[in-house]
């Protein structure tokens, strides 16, 4: 049950984990074992004792998937314009600046183009530390541009989701990104370019209800929280405790929403194999009916 | 407010753009629409300093008013021969979504929308207008039926949210909405969307992709309910008025942001004061919307729709 309590994510990424990692040791939240930080990193941020998948940064994701960690970044510099002039206890502008400073990114998504086991692909990775990986106009635009590039270059697309959903501070503008990106995916589908959606912990709200669930393949990391409504919202609405494992990857697989659960260590090989099957030379873009 | 000077700069820039468009707007429809959008933006910008919370919360209350006409009321008042069709052919029939073929001023259309309940029994039966995956799948099935037979689609939006429940999650609430967002843009028939009550986040958007999106004057459209926004930002519900204001969820706000194409008038005091009059005010909007979209060939309609969605972007590059 413990993981449901962890859903009380503040707006900024929690510091606790990072503070712990400043030392050489970190305690696994799942098996409570002390881990040497270097061991965790060397193990792709999975607990060497219990295989719990820790959150990864967008940069580490691209590093992990591209051959030799080499890629060209696209659409750098696309940032939020704060379309609502949103200000609560703090100005959204300041939240953005803080997130930009802390992550070194312009917004919550990074796009890279490069080789994955020798095949040219475009990968978008979401950054949870940037305002809970939420999708506003910058994220929506970057994904749409990535899709346009994939259509133009017949390049397979991989999106690694890690997000609490639409970005509240951009109001209905962020809502519209769901429609914009999904319509762009309809065009990608028409171009018969493969799209693999990788859902990681957590993928909820407006991100799960748009591009994350629209892959030709939807694959997830083990134990990831995936759903439309967050568990807290459901608990409050129903006034009851949720069953163990509810909205976890294994639950979604059982209910037919995922093609597979793929542990992080197997991810690159899995994606490569699937793309080899779906996008083999001559196999894509041919319409048997025409 | 600290950013006052910046806002007046913005107002001046808007005024100038409006002035520049004025001449072109006399002969050109696109320019006129753009000019109206900028005027709405300017209006919403100017109202800010005078009334602190913009009256946005009042709109939320009007949009949720228990006597406000619901989707079936508009269907009854504006359409004939409505033939309700049930079920998603997958799992079940969701009473929070209603739809079927009907006639508007004699011409066949397909009408679909969220339905709230009036009395307690109905409210429960309709799940307060909160649809489940089977509701979104039913809506898409009906829309695809319309596309098959060339019927334009009129979508009536009024929901607090997609239902956050265990069964809904098990059956893929996220997938159902996502799939609609991918499939609806493909339909080769006109999509006229009318947000007449609550436009509750993804629960609304799941059926609300359109070629022409109309919002009634007192309707609201938001990424999150003001109460939830308040509880996230202030950790209580006491700031819901302020949350409503900063979320920019009124018809004018959304028109100004270019998300909504047209604001439809309501009777003085709101649609609940006179549902019949509200429907009659909506009639010419539906008529004009359908006839304008009907004049476009399907190819162009779909292309224009994708371009419209592509433009929903405000960012710095
Ligand atoms: Zn562990």
What's the CATH architecture of the domain at 66-217 and 265-310 in chain B? Alpha-Beta Complex
- What would CATH call the class of the domain at 66-217 and 265-310 in chain B? Alpha Beta
What is the average of the pLDDT values of chain B? 90
The CATH homologous superfamily name of chain A equals 2-enoyl-CoA Hydratase, Chain A, domain 1
Mean pLDDT of chain A: 90
Structural class of chain A: alpha/beta
| Major β-sheet profile of chain A | 7 strands, mixed
Looking at CATH, the homologous superfamily of the domain at 66-217 and 265-310 in chain B is 2-enoyl-CoA Hydratase, Chain A, domain 1
Percent of residues in helices of chain B: 40-55%
Question: How far is the first residue's CA from the last residue's CA of chain B?
Answer: 27 Å
Question: Which overall shape of chain A is indicated by the principal axes computed on the Cα atoms?
Answer: globular
Order of helices and strands of chain B: HHHHEEHHEHHEHEEHHHEHHE
Total separate domains of chain A: 1
**CATH-defined topology of chain A:** 2-enoyl-CoA Hydratase, Chain A, domain 1
Q: Please state how the strands of the largest beta sheet of chain A are arranged side by side.
A: 3-5-6-7-8-9-10
Strand content of chain B: 5-15%
| Cα-based radius of gyration of chain B, to the nearest Å | 19 Å
Number of helices of chain B: 14
């Amino acid at each position: 049950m413990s993981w449901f309590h962890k859903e009380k994510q503040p707006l900024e990424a929690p510091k606790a984990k990072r503070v712990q990692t400043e030392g050489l040791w970190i305690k696994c939240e799942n098996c409570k074992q002390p881990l040497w930080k270097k061991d965790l990193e060397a193990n792709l941020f999975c607990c060497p004792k219990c295989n719990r998948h820790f959150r990864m940064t967008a940069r580490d994701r691209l590093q992990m998937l591209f051959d030799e960690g080499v890629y060209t970044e696209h659409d750098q510099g696309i940032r939020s314009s704060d379309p609502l002039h949103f200000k609560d206890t703090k100005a959204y502008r300041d939240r953005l600046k803080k997130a930009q400073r802390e992550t070194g990114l312009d917004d919550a998504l990074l796009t890279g183009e490069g080789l994955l086991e020798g095949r040219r692909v475009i990968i978008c990775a979401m950054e949870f530390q940037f305002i809970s990986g939420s999708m506003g106009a910058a994220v929506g635009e970057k994904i749409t541009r990535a899709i346009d590039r994939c259509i133009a270059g017949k390049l397979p697309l991989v999106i690694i989701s890690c997000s609490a959903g639409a970005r509240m501070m951009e109001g209905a503008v962020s809502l519209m990104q769901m429609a914009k990106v999904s319509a762009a995916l309809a065009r990608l589908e028409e171009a018969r370019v493969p799209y693999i959606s990788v859902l990681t912990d957590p993928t909820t709200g407006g991100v799960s209800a748009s591009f994350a669930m629209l892959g030709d393949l939807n694959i997830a990391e083990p134990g990831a929280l995936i759903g439309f409504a967050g568990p807290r919202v459901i608990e409050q609405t129903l006034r009851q405790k949720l069953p163990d494992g509810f909205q976890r990857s294994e639950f979604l697989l059982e209910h037919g929403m995922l093609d597979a659960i793929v542990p992080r260590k197997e991810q690159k090989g899995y994606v490569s194999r699937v793309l080899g099957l779906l996008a083999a030379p001559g196999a894509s873009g041919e319409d048997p009916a025409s | 407010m600290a950013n006052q000077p910046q806002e007046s700069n913005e107002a001046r820039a808007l005024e100038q753009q409006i002035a520049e468009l004025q001449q072109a707007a006399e002969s050109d429809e696109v320019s006129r629409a753009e000019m109206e959008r900028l005027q709405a933006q300017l209006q919403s910008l100017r109202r800010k300093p005078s009334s602190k919370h913009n009256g946005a919360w009042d709109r939320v209350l009007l949009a949720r008013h228990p006597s406000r006409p619901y989707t079936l009321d508009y269907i009854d008042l504006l359409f004939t021969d409505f033939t309700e069709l049930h079920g998603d052919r997958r799992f079940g029939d969701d009473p929070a979504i209603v739809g079927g073929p009907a006639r508007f001023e004699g011409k066949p259309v397909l009408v679909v929308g969220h339905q709230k309940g009036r009395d307690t029994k109905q409210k429960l039966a309709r799940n307060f207008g909160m649809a489940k995956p089977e509701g979104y799948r039913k809506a898409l099935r009906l829309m695809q039926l319309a596309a098959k037979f060339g019927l334009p689609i009129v979508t009536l939006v009024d929901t607090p949210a997609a239902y956050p429940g265990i069964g809904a999650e098990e059956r893929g609430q996220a997938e159902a909405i996502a799939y609609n967002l991918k499939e609806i843009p493909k339909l080769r028939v006109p999509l006229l969307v009318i947000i007449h009550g609550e436009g509750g986040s993804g629960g609304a958007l799941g059926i609300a992709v359109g070629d022409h999106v109309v919002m009634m004057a007192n309707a609201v459209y938001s990424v999150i309910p003001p109460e939830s926004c308040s509880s996230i930002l202030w950790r209580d519900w006491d700031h819901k008025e302020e949350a409503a204001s900063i979320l920019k969820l009124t018809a004018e706000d959304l028109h100004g942001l270019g998300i909504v194409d047209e604001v439809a008038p309501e009777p003085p005091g709101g649609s609940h004061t006179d549902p019949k009059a509200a429907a009659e005010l909506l009639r010419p909007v539906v008529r004009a919307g359908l006839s304008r979209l009907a004049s476009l060939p399907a190819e162009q309609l779909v292309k224009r729709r994708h371009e419209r969605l592509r433009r929903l972007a405000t960012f710095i590059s």
